[in-house]
Amino acid sequence: MKTLLIVYHSLTGGTQQMAEAAAEAARAQEGVAVRLQRAVDTGPDDLLAADGYLFGTPENLASMAGLMKDFFDRCYYPVLGRLNGRPYAAMICAGSDGQNALRQLDRIATGWRLRTVAPGLIVCTHAQTPERIFAPKQIGAEDRARCAELGGALAAGLALGVF
Hints:
This protein is an alpha/beta fold. 44% of the residues lie in helices and 24% in strands.
């Protein structure tokens, strides 16, 4: 059985909703165990035990969230050279465009020699004021469906041996 590891950080609930939608759809695929974990609770052994990855992070100050970066900082060198070729995809919960956070995440994945299997998914909340930035997020049904599609497709690809 293959394992899909979904690692995320969420401060206002948006990225968590995205990750949960992806995990729910991924769990509907036979032949794949799905592990949904917060970035602060995830370490190198979790990465090594998985066959594929879905990373989710909010965009903070035009970057990936600090606690997601902390996850990558803690895990980068212990797994370097040991994940080569494994598939991954990324989801960004952004207040604006999310492109820089996605670029950062993709650069780290490139260093690990992971294989991108889907374009990065960016959900824009348009939170541009301090009140809206720190307010709890509610991700709409259409965007949650996009996250579910990504999680389901990644799990199906693992199960079928496509990646």
